[in-house]
Amino acid sequence: MKPIAICYPKCGTCQKAEKWMKSHGVEYSYRPIKEENPSKEELKLWLDKSGLPISKFFNTSGLLYKEHNMKDKVKVLSEDELLDILASNGMMVKRPILLSNDNVLVGFKEEEWEQLFK
Hints:
CATH architecture: 3-Layer(aba) Sandwich
Low-confidence stretches: none
Helix content: 40-55%
Distance between the termini: 16 Å
């Protein structure tokens, strides 16, 4: 299965990730996060596979995150409530998200991506 890159086309980090994949010959499928927002079930699955805390799935530099005062809410709401918030709007989700077999990478850290594709 080809890796799936879940991105927002105007996101600079997503653009870097796509450029990196193209320069490394990685064939991938593209899923626009704004138009195809991840479902709560998908997010729960990715959260479990990633091994990351749910806070790492939030786009902390986004306007929505700031407007909704998520910095404080992430600390007190349940995982279920936070998954509902993430599933409500793709712009709340950190990106890119890369799905490759049983691996889930959130954000673009070149070292992590190199490790996955070597």
